Amino acid sequence: MRLLSTLGVFGVLDVVMPEWEAANGAKVAASFDPTALMLERIGRGERADAAFLTTAGIDALIVDGVMVPGSRVDLARSLVGIAVRSGAPRPDLSTLESTRSALLAARCVAYSRKGRSGIFFSGVIERLGIAREVNARALVLENGVTAEALLDARADLAVQQVSELMLVAGVEVAGALPAGIQDDLLFAGGVFTDAAEPDLARSLIAAMADPRRAGLYEAKGLEPVNRG
């Protein structure tokens, strides 16, 4: 079966998918991108059996007739955070003012142009009144995991979903953005209307939504919706 997925749940899928494949005698051909880029690909006609995207993305595809009504299954809530290279001083993210100061003090902040976290962060620095200063020395990536820019010192702070920052060895998550400038992002699964393997698609989504996976989601930096 074919799967299109946001990078936000990659860490969980990396564990669940091999176990599901072994239990079902099936193979998953998975492709990963930020939700915004994935929606562009789908808009150009790309299809699969299942997708893991933001709830807003799944809902939009249902409205457009691309995904099956009622097939949306909510999985986990994600927070936007900031990471540093392992061993580097961690910025104070406890308040709006301390976070604002940390962003202004940074030599370079890496964030994504088209990922949900990057689009959100762009709005955050506008609201904080520091967009011009931060963007003057920011590293804005088209796609991928922003924390990789910490490893070669292209940036000293990386902004992205906490679950995505945790994918990179050699970095540490300093924390999530404080309340007031935090995103409320929920990831979900859905089934394509023209899926070649709709039963397998629903089975994989059910495996990802299993309440027994709550600890795994938490370990990967996500807040599970389905708790045992």
Order of helices and strands: EHEHEHEEHEHHEHEHEEHHE
CATH architecture title of the largest domain: 3-Layer(aba) Sandwich
Helix/strand/pairing category? alpha/beta
Low-confidence stretches: none
Report the helical percentage: 25-40%
Give me the Rg, rounded: 18 Å
Q: Treating each run of at least 4 consecutive H or I residues as one helix, how many helices?
A: 10
Strand coverage percent: 15-25%
Query: Strand order of the main beta sheet, please?
Result: 2-1-3-10-4-11
Q: What is the CATH domain class of the largest domain?
A: Alpha Beta
CATH superfamily of the largest domain: Periplasmic binding protein-like II
Tags for this entry?
D-Maltodextrin-Binding Protein, domain 2, 228 residues, alpha/beta
Walk me through the structure.
- The chain is of the alpha/beta class.
- The protein folds into two domains: 2-77 and 184-224, Periplasmic binding protein-like II (D-Maltodextrin-Binding Protein, domain 2); 80-176, D-Maltodextrin-Binding Protein, domain 2 (3-Layer(aba) Sandwich).
- Helices cover 37% and strands 23% of the residues.
- The protein contains ten helices and eleven strands.
- Strand 1, helix 1 and strand 2 (29-32) form a beta-alpha-beta unit.
- Helix 1 (10-24) packs across helix 9.
- The relative contact order is 0.24.
